[in-house]
Design brief:
The chain is of the alpha+beta class. 20% of the residues lie in helices and 35% in strands.
């Protein structure tokens, strides 16, 4: 019996280590900047990305240098439409946990986002304060189409979303 328990424990320990739940991505994985084979500059403006469409290759590691030229915090988030919808709900929940007296009724205090209660650390995104720069390096695993988006409440709906094609 001891041998069976030992064998079971050993087999569990030999399983591959997976990313934390909710942090597994069909389109690739985060990578260190030193592994990047290309750097892409992305500008975040108030309700737009420049460029609005990007193409990368499957297997390519891309370092995104993201500059916020807008007046409020924005994020650069890689994912599909379903992932963005889920993330938007999480952002709304974070907004609800913020001090509503500082926000007023229905208005959004963007100053509390990147440096405050809306700060979060998902491997597929970077939140950038106005006038600041952030980076995200990603290895794209297989061909397909995803989006890059800002999921700060209301920004995606206002058009702050772009198409990212992962070519063969």
């Amino acid at each position: 019996m001891k041998g069976l328990i030992f064998a079971a424990a050993l087999s569990v320990l030999s399983l591959p280590v997976l990313a934390a739940p909710g942090h597994e991505f069909a389109f690739g994985q985060p990578a260190p900047a030193a592994k990047a084979t290309r750097t892409v500059q992305v500008v975040l403006g108030d309700m737009y990305f420049e460029p609005g469409d990007l193409t990368v290759k499957a297997g390519e590691t891309v370092r995104f240098v993201v500059t916020n030229k807008g007046q409020v915090p924005h994020e650069f988030n890689l994912g599909d439409a379903t992932m963005h919808a889920r993330h938007q709900q999480e952002m709304l929940a974070m907004q609800g946990q913020m001090d509503h007296s500082a926000m007023g009724h229905g208005s959004m205090d963007h100053s509390k986002m990147a440096g405050g209660a809306m700060k979060h650390d998902d491997p597929n995104m970077v939140m950038v304060d106005p006038g600041k720069q952030g980076e995200l390096t990603w290895t794209f695993s297989k061909p397909g189409a995803i989006e890059f988006a800002c999921n700060v409440p209301g920004h995606y709906q206002a058009g702050m979303v772009g198409k990212l094609t992962i070519a063969q």
